[in-house]
Design brief:
Elements: E1 5-9, E2 16-22, H1 32-43, H2 51-54, E3 60-63, E4 65-66, E5 69-70, E6 75-80, H3 86-91, H4 104-110, H5 117-122, H6 128-144
Antiparallel strand pairs: 1-2, 2-6, 3-6, 4-5
C-alpha cells in the first residue's frame, strides 16, 4: 500500500479550506457522517472563539470518491467558510510587524514576503479543520482494517 500523505490549502477567511489526500486505496467506503462528526468535535472545548458558532463544518468530496467509495486517485475534500471575507482581505492593509508567539515571522521568511497577512491567514486555528478532515478520512481506513486507536492523559506536571 502506498504511503498516506496530505496537504492543506486555503485561508482562514477565504471561500474554502481544501485537503488533498494521496495514497488511499481504491474501494474504501467513506463514512462522511463520521468525518463531519469529527469536525463538530473539533469545534467544542474550552476557550473556543466566537468563530466556532459561525461555522458549521461539513466536508464535501470533489475528487477521488465515487458513489461513497475511494477510486484510488488523489482525494480532495473541501470545507466551506461561512465567515469568508475575501473582498475585505483584498482591501486590508499589509501586516509588516510579526506578532510575538505566532507563525508570522517564520512564514514570512519561508514564503519570502514582508506581509505577515499571508501567514496569519494560513496559520490559524481555522486551518485545523482541514487537518481534522484528513485524520478522520484516515480513521475510515483504520476502521476498515479493524485497527482501533485511542488516547488519554495519564497526568500533568
Amino acid at each position: 500500500m502506498p504511503t498516506l500523505a496530505f496537504q492543506t490549502a486555503g485561508e482562514s477567511h477565504g471561500p474554502v479550506l481544501t485537503t488533498l489526500v494521496t495514497g488511499m486505496p481504491a474501494g474504501l467506503e467513506i463514512d462522511v457522517e463520521s468525518i463531519n462528526a469529527e469536525l463538530r468535535r473539533r469545534q467544542g472545548g474550552y476557550g473556543r472563539g466566537g468563530r466556532q458558532r459561525i461555522e458549521a463544518d461539513a466536508v464535501t468530496f470533489t475528487a477521488g470518491v465515487r458513489r461513497g467509495r475511494t477510486t484510488g486517485a488523489p482525494i480532495i475534500m473541501q470545507i466551506p467558510n461561512r465567515d469568508s471575507r475575501l473582498d475585505d482581505l483584498r482591501r486590508t492593509p499589509p501586516v509588516y510587524r510579526p506578532r510575538p508567539g505566532h507563525a508570522d515571522l517564520a512564514g514570512s521568511i519561508k514564503w519570502l514576503t514582508t506581509d505577515c497577512r499571508e501567514t496569519l491567514e494560513r496559520a490559524s486555528a481555522r486551518e485545523t479543520a482541514a487537518r481534522t478532515a484528513a485524520g478522520a478520512l484516515a480513521q475510515c481506513l483504520l476502521t476498515e482494517l479493524d485497527i482501533h486507536a485511542f488516547g488519554f492523559v495519564r497526568g500533568m506536571l
